[in-house]
Design goal:
The protein has about 290 residues and is of the alpha/beta class. The chain has helices at about 20-30, 35-45, 75-80, 105, 125-135, 140-155, 170-185, 200-215, 230-235, 250-255, 270-275, 285; strands at about 5-15, 50-60, 65, 90-95, 95-100, 110-115, 190, 220-225, 235-240, 245-250. The strands form two sheets. A six-stranded mixed β-sheet has the order 6-7-8-3-9-10, with helices on both faces. A four-stranded antiparallel β-sheet has the order 2-1-4-5.
Length: about 290
């Protein structure tokens, strides 16, 4: 089995250690030539390391999960793989292409679903997906048929397919985002909390489609989620990330062997709490 994703010592930080002389003068003297200590203090804040020398390999056709508390760096990692961010150190390859030096080749092979998908809200799901399909060079009656097939497979009623997106619930809009990603038949599908906001039935429908993509088309899937049951049921292997570092990486069954619960099999949630000291809570759950 060949490698789909190779991440070697990836490093990404936000913020600058040094600033320009002009900014130093402005922060020091202020607009009226007076000292501005608060702004100077803010400018001296150290950079935030979001991904801290992370290494792992995802095999072709694997469903690979990334679990981490809010702010742990998992979404930054997804953006690095999607070529939306450039790593400050290390190397990341997708099917042999370097994300920093060969972003166009990588982009042809991937698609991404984020927890906050963007659409033209005045347009319908059909119109949004047909627009997205044209960006991938797809058009015609066959594309329209595929759009209808994917949307109905994900549980959208046919009457909703041609209604404005602004009239749909957040969960339904998330289904359309997933359909848009599936339409291009990516070799690597990046799912950043794809089922957040969905009801249990919709979650099961999305999870079934994810399995079908892997089983029927050999699609490689990298998934971040706050749903422990989803992670355990879907993922072949799981990386647990905390403060930008991977603290554990193995199969769900092997991860549960890392801790003991007095003769009782621990849950994946128990393992996560033991390794990170935190409960896994979605940002939407605390909003």
């Amino acid at each position: 089995m060949s490698d789909a994703v190779v991440v070697i010592d990836a490093y990404k930080k936000f913020g600058k250690v040094h600033q320009s002389l002009w900014k130093t003068v402005v922060h020091s003297n202020g607009a009226n030539g007076k000292s501005n200590g608060s702004k100077q203090a803010n400018s001296d804040k150290p950079p935030v390391v979001a991904v801290d020398h992370v290494s792992f390999i995802v095999k072709q056709g694997e469903i690979f999960g990334v679990l981490g508390p809010n702010g742990s760096g998992k979404s930054t990692l997804i953006r690095l793989l999607a070529t939306l961010l450039i790593p400050d150190g290390g190397a990341i390859q997708v099917f042999g292409y370097d994300v920093a030096r060969q972003p166009m080749q990588v982009q042809r092979l991937i698609n991404r679903v984020s927890v906050e998908a963007s659409f033209f809200k005045k347009l319908s799901p059909m119109e949004n997906l047909l627009y997205g399909a044209r960006l991938y060079g797809m058009s015609g009656a066959e594309t329209r048929r595929q759009v209808t097939e994917i949307l109905t497979r994900l549980g959208l009623e046919r009457r909703s397919i041609n209604q404005p997106m602004e009239e749909m619930s957040r969960g339904m809009q998330q289904k359309v985002a997933i359909a848009r990603a599936l339409l291009s038949k990516p070799r690597l599908l990046l799912l950043d909390e794809p089922t957040t906001g969905l009801d249990p039935r919709s979650k099961r429908e999305v999870q079934a489609v994810v399995r079908e993509l892997r089983d029927q088309f050999g699609t490689t899937i990298l998934l971040t989620t706050h749903d422990m049951v989803e992670a355990e049921n879907l993922c072949d292997r799981i990386a647990i990330i905390e403060s930008g570092k991977i603290v554990a990486l193995d199969t769900p069954a092997a991860l549960k062997l890392l801790i003991s619960r007095n003769g009782h099999e621990p849950s994946l949630e128990d393992v996560f709490l033991e390794l990170t000291g935190k409960q896994l809570v979605s940002e939407t759950d605390v909003a």
